[in-house]
Amino acid sequence: MATSDNAKVVGAKRLPAKSYPEQLAEWVNQPVRKLRDRHLVTFMAVRNDVEAALHAGFAAKTIWANMQEAGRVDFCYETFLKHVKRCSNAPQGNQAVHTTKAKSKTAAGPVIVAPPAIQGFVFNPVPNKEELL
To answer: Any idea where the domains of the chain sit in the sequence?
Structure first.
């Protein structure tokens, strides 16, 4: 019995073929947990320990290797590093409030800051007579 790729044969019955958009819709609606979500949850569970170790001066690779060996994380170093970078760049809830309050207090007028003095070589087209000899 020849069937198309989409047709499904159950027992002796041939079910009508579903279109690709219908198949895709079924696949999208399946409740499947993604690894990405599981890895994020795992990282969030050890986040405070990771931040404490980073502030203590340990390298991210060392922290990951220790947690991998202890079974606290089960994902690769690249995933670990991605989560570390994402969480370290995210503003903390209380810190964002404090910075906006600080900005609103100092926003009374424009602050003019003088540019730093340029150090190094500066070309002067008019020669200084004292420096020539």
So the answer is: 35-90
Quick count: other Cβ atoms within 10 Å of Cβ 66? 14
Alpha-helical (H) ranges within 56-114 are 60-70, 77-89, 93-106
Q: Distance between the two ends of the chain, CA-based, in angstroms? A: 105
Q: What is the pTM of this model?
A: 0.46
The pLDDT tens digits for 75-94 are 899 999 999 998 877 665 54
CA torsion, points 76, 78, 79, 85, in degrees to nearest 10?
A: 140
Q: In this structure, what token pair is assigned to residue 124?
A: 């002067």
Distance (Å, whole) CA 61 – CA 80: 9
Nearest to 81 by CA among 52, 55, 57, 50: 50
3-state DSSP helix/strand/coil % of the chain, to nearest 5: 55, 5, 40
Q: What is the pLDDT of residue 31?
A: 66
